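Morning!

This is the sequence you dropped in the shared folder:
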Amino acid sequence: MRSRAATVVVLAGVFCALDWRPIPAVQAAADAPFHRGVNLTGWLQAGSAREIQFTQFTKQDLVNIKSLGCDVIRLPINLHFMTDGEPNYTIDPLFFYFLDQIVDWCEELELRLILDNHTFDVDSSTATDIDTVLTPVWTQMAEHYKDRSTYLYYEILNEPHGISDSRWSQIQQQVVAAIRAVDPTRTIVVTGAGWGSYNNLAHVPLYRHGNLIYSFHFYDPFLFTHQGASWTNPSMGPLAGVPFPYDAGPIPACPAELKGTWIESSLAAYRNDGTIERVKELIDIAVKFRNERKAPVFCGEFGVYRKNSDNDQRVAWYQVVREYLEANGIPWTIWDYQGGFGLFHPGSNELFEHDLNVPMVEALGLTAPEQTPFVLTPDLVGFDLYTDFVAPGISNSGYSSQGVVDYYWGDDPAEGAYCIYCTGFARYNMIGFNFRPDKDLTYLVEHASVLDLWVRGDTPGAKIELRFLDTKTDAPADHPWRMGTAVDDDVAAWDDQWHHVQIPLANFKDRGSWDETWFNPRGAFDWSAVDRFEIVSEYHDFVDMQLWFDEIRVTDPPSVW
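The structure's back. Tokens below.
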């Protein structure tokens, strides 16, 4: 049984007391001032600020989310990766440049925004000295945002795990105190160890700083919500057909590769664990904590991975969980908006007006706009691929086995604030622009439109490939065909100066296809279904070369800048 003796810690000159005894004077019992929302995943979960694709979401996406009936967004951030590392963990100003705009949009739209420090590794335990990172990063965050509105919230760390409750409680108190020293009134989201489980809420002490919201995550029954997930231990990739509730269908046999693991025993117990009643019993653990502690509680994540789950049963699970959370006054943000747990149909372009999973949206008590079939039509005007940012509707999807790619190089761009810089590429590495949805460029090809860009290189003799790839259909003889053109000294002198290059789309040549093996050109490229554009080290590596690209667009016949 846990000792009830207080632990006294002196940290960074701040006296902090961790005490399991009630301290009513400092804990507000008010409910959280938000109700329903989404986790906006993938946006700021990058390996560095310079790897963020800022236009992955736009202000319009936030408008769309609010129109569903949401009033809060939980924004996962790989916060520790946004710094220069130890010892100071100084946050990159570029990260603040991006985040400031998101905060501005949410304040304008009156959306609550939870800045979720999502720097965690599912395969690694939370370090017992993680305070050496958390304290400086949150001190900087608090200093930067201390004067912003009450729409903004701080969440110290997502799902601490593999660390004792007592040690995590000490660390969390230190970080709360560090934030309070700079930003005294900001609402802070705290959680327990054990992956932020409802079971660990009771081990979170009643901290001596108030204005806290206590978070938990909910993914039960885990066999149902994570069937098909590859990141569990062991991988649940082979597991499929687990019903919800348990009597909605036969319980599948345990896959051979999972025999002897906890998954086999959990399948045997699923008749008890896979019931609606059991789901409610587990949520009641958080309800009990809320009632006894008289503190606001928030379900920061819940969801069902859609890969191997039945959609009707998935919808039923969301409705059960959402209704029970709301019946008990617990606000929530689902995991996630787009992605494997998201609100959109799998395999779709995840377009708001076309691809929402309406039954799921309705199960969450939200309101979807009328959905219409998506019809790909020809682009009639040119479009940007990169102008300081990768353009909206395009995802950067390059590949580099070595070297550096920086999409926000600020030293002497051709235009604007940034350009793309790369160096050290191996042969066949590339910078990629994936069109979502695909593009029909037939009209632009027929009307003499050009690929227009600025290029710069520092090594004479360099040669790069610019190419479009079409989509691969289900036809056995179809492959992702290429149309390409080379840029060498004859097109742009590699003299460390910017050169304006314009290449008619009609001048691109059939390059064949690589689809696990090589297929020679056969005139099969389809300009009506273009999947992506690439800049490739096709002819040699760039190990000792530097290259820059800027203002990449498809535009009308040659223009003068």
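Headline: Residues 1-29 have pLDDT under 50 and may be disordered.

More detail when I'm at my desk.
O.
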